[in-house]
Each structure stands twice: as C-alpha cells, then as structure tokens.
Amino acid sequence: MTKRMYGTSALCLLMIVVVGAGCARHRVHTQRPGPFVTITFVGDTGEGDQAQDFVKQYGLRKSFENVRAALKNTDFLVGNGETPIADENVPPLPGQPWHPKQTPEVAKVYAEEGFTAFNLANNHCLDWGVTGLQQTIKYLTDAGIKTFGAGMTEADARRPLILSKNGVKVGVLGYFDKQKKYDELGMWYASGDQPGVALLSEANLRDDVAKLKTQVDVVVIFPHWGANYHAVTKGQQSLARRIAATGANLVVGSHSHTAQPVEVVDRVPVLYSLGNFIWHSVGLYRQSKMEDFAYTLVARIEIDRQGVRRILLTPFWSDNRQVKFVSQPATSSQAKKLFNVILKPLNNDWDLENQTAVIDLQ
Ligand SMILES: [Zn+2]
Is this prediction's pTM over 0.85? Predict the structure, then answer.
C-alpha cells in the first residue's frame, strides 16, 4: 500500500492550519515485499454489570452493531478480556469493591463475532477467585477462543499466544503491571504453582522475550498498565522503553479505559491504550474530565517477517453515558480532534483515510 502523498509542503502546512488534521511527511515508501499477516487488537471487553438491563432487553450482540464491520477482513482478533465468565454459584473475591462478571453464553458470542484470543493479564480476571479464572479460561477455550496472560501456574500465565499465517509467525505476551493493591492481596500474580496473572517485570520481559524470539518472527507485548481514566503515566513511558530494549517489536496496551497516545519508542510502536471496547460500565469520563478520550480504537496491524508494516486505527465513540452501550463510529471532526492529540508524538507522520488513521512504518 502506498502512502497518500500531498502535493506540496505549502499545502501540507495549509491543511494543518485550516483543518488541524494530521498530514504525512514527504517520505517515499517502497512496499516491503513478501506476505504479511493482519492482527486486529481491541481494548477492554466485558458484557454484564451496568449493562445487564441493556443485555436483557437487546441481547449480547447489540453492542457489536457498529463495530462489527471493523472487525472483519483480519486474520486474527485479540482483545483485553477484563471480565471473568463464571457460573452463578461462584462467590466473588472478598474485598473487591467492583467485581463485574459475565454469563457463560457470552463466550460463544465472542467467538461468533470473530475473537481469536483474549489477554487475561489484568486487574479483574480474579474478581471471582481462582474458580472464576478457571471457568473463564474453560468457557473461552470451549468456544474456540485462546487465552494468555493468566493461568493456573506461572508457566501457564507467561505462555505466549502464537499466531501463524502466510509464513509469518507472531508471539503475543500479556502482562499486568505490578500495582500495590493487587500485589498486597498476595494471590493476584502467578508464581510457581500459584495461579494468577503474568507480572510485568523487567526479569519476566527479558526472559520471555528472549525465549519467544527464537520461536517467532515478531514479538508483541500486551501490557495492562497505567491508571484508570488518566493520561499516560511516567511509569508507562518508562516501561515502554524497557520493553523496547528487550527486542520486542510492538506494544499494545490497556487499562486506562481511554484512548491514549501512540508513539514510536526506539523504533518500537507503542499504543499505550486502546480504550474500552465492548464495555459494561458508564465509566468515569465526566468526573475525570477525560470525555475527549472516551473512544475505543480498533487497531488493525499488518505484520510481516521483518516487523510491523502498517497500523490502522479506527475510532469509535464509546462514552456509554452518551452512546448507551452501542459505540458509534467517530465523526470526521471527532476523529481529527482525537488523532491530532493522541498521534502528536508521531510528528504528523500519519494519514487520515475516512475516519481511519494510517501509520506507515515501512
Ligand atoms: Zn484494568
């Protein structure tokens, strides 16, 4: 795919001034030859909690109505599985103030909507205890969806998701940042034979990436990090640098429930957070003054054996207080306003095609 070019630098400057839209630098790209694979990543996913009445009235598929088309024509679809799937008789973990849960039939719906895998390395996958985690993995596996980032042992939790197509092999590792509250529970992070999530630590990253690089062409890290309804933290920025230093090729993050910036750190593209995808809470956008970032990014990534070729980001407005659990395609002005902020670290080296931002990394 050739990058859309603009006629003159004067026109480019004019466009920035007039519409404030991103405008590609005059860089000539030669398309890298050879096959590639397309992986679409989406953010925080869960259908229950405050959406229970909505689901009762409209069913589990209604929330996919507007995003469904953006999930098509991809080889794989991977999301952040931030909500346990557990039976009615499973008790919640004591002391968790908010513990959303999904009913087992949701697994089949996710499979039919195209999900390949869910990352379970997050701060909710144990809200219904180890039994809840075990049932989540079982229901998803039974529906044909793979899981990674959490498991019944540390080795399970740190086992990568391997995606292979067209001769391109990609490995994805999921981790949850070390957060005090969860660390103090003493049972959240998998350790030896203890179930839990994979810990985002320098040692784990170094060892896991080194091992994975001998098995695959491209390594993706999927961290659950930062702070809810908050801008990118210094901690995320520092971790991004440490991840890049391991030799990983791409970082796709989650946890903030907002769309966060994209930057290239030491030649590694870092998507700090994709925001909520199909999500069952109205969120704290208004209270946190983060309404401008109440978007979900559907991130379609083209990867060949040399790394990431292109990133295509399609935004959907996902402020549930406004969209009532059915995310809406961003309008042209919403998309421009959002991308001009979150793609600022790319120095205008991206194009807008309809409402989709195209970042060419070849
Ligand atoms: Zn989270």
Answer: yes
Q: Are 173 and 148 in contact (CB under 8 A)?
A: yes
Q: How many CB atoms lie within 10 A of CB 237?
A: 14
- C-alpha span between 226 and 234 (Å, rounded): 9
Tell me, in angstroms, the distance from the centre of ligand 1 to residue 275's CA. 10
Token reading at 61: 């598929």
pLDDT tens figures, 36-46: 999 999 999 99
How far does residue 255's CA lie from ligand 1's centre (Å)?
Answer: 4
> What share of the chain in percent tops pLDDT 90?
83
Instruction: Give the distance (Å) from ligand 1 centre to CA of residue 264.
Output: 23
Q: 281 C-alpha to center of ligand 1: Å?
A: 12
Q: Domains for the chain: give ranges and CATH numbers.
A: 1-30+344-362 (no CATH), 35-329 (3.60.21.10)
More confidently predicted of 340 and 99: 340
Residue 321's H or E segment, with its range, is: helix 320-323
Burial of 184 from C-beta contacts in 10 A (0-12 / 13-18 / 19+)? exposed
